[in-house]
Q: What sequence folds into this?
C-alpha cells in the first residue's frame, strides 16, 4: 500500500455514496448480461423481430449499461479528482487524468465504450444493423465497466486512503 493522503471527509462521503450507487448499477448490468447472453451476437433481423420478453431484457441491458457508464464518467471520475484536490476541467481532461491513474486502460478504449452507448441508445429505424452491432460489441465489453469500477476501488483505498469497508466489493 502506498502512502495514504488526507482527504476532505465531506467529499469522501459523497464519493462513497456515488460508489455505492455505481456498485448497484454494476450488479444490474451483470444481471442483464446473463439474461441476454442467448441473444448475442445480435443480427439486425433478430433485433427487429424480438419477442416482448427478449426486447424488455435487451432494453434493460441498454439502459443499465448507459447508466453505469454515465455514473463512472460523470460522477465517480470527477469525485475521485475532487478527493485528490485536482482541478477538474473538461471531460477530456478528466479522462486523461483517469488514464494517467490507471483507472481506464486508455482514452481511446473509453471513447469506444461511450460511442457504443451513443449508437445503441438511438432508435433510428434505418440504422437497425448499426444498433445491433453496437449492442453486440457493448455486450462483449460491458464487463470492462465493472473492471473500471474495481480499479477505482483499489485506487481509492491504496492511494487516497478510503477505508476498504466503506467501499463495497464489486460483483463478478
A:
Amino acid at each position: 500500500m502506498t502512502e495514504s493522503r488526507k482527504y476532505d471527509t465531506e467529499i469522501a462521503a459523497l464519493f462513497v455514496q456515488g460508489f455505492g450507487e455505481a456498485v448497484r448499477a454494476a450488479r444490474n448490468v451483470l444481471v442483464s448480461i446473463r439474461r441476454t447472453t442467448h441473444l448475442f451476437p445480435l443480427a439486425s433481423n433478430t433485433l427487429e423481430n424480438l419477442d416482448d420478453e427478449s426486447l424488455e431484457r435487451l432494453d434493460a441491458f441498454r439502459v443499465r449499461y448507459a447508466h453505469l457508464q454515465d455514473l463512472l464518467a460523470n460522477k465517480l471520475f470527477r469525485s475521485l479528482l475532487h478527493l485528490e484536490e485536482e482541478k477538474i476541467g473538461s471531460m477530456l481532461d478528466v479522462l486523461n487524468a483517469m488514464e494517467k491513474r490507471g483507472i481506464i486502460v486508455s482514452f481511446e478504449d473509453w471513447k469506444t465504450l461511450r460511442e457504443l452507448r451513443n449508437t445503441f441508445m438511438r432508435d433510428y429505424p434505418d440504422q437497425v444493423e448499426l444498433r445491433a452491432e453496437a449492442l453486440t460489441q457493448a455486450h462483449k465489453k460491458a464487463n470492462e465497466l465493472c473492471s473500471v469500477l474495481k480499479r477505482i476501488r483499489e485506487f481509492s483505498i491504496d492511494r487516497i486512503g478510503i477505508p476498504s469497508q466503506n467501499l463495497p466489493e464489486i460483483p463478478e
Q: What stands out?
A: The mean pLDDT is 93.
